[in-house]
Design a protein that fits this description.
48 residues, mainly alpha
């Protein structure tokens, strides 16, 4: 994997964690995500 792709994946991961972290527990529940799962959801987002 090249440096640019790694950097873009890192940015996407951080952005996903940040956006989900700003959501209320109710909003996360509506999406079917628990607060403890935010990092694993973000990791799955960069795998797509």
């Amino acid at each position: 994997m090249n440096v640019a792709r790694s950097f873009n994946n890192w940015r996407k991961y951080r952005q996903t964690v940040s956006e989900l972290g700003r959501m209320s527990s109710r909003e996360l529940f509506d999406l079917g995500i628990e607060r403890a799962d935010i990092r694993s959801v973000a990791r799955a987002a960069i795998a797509r």
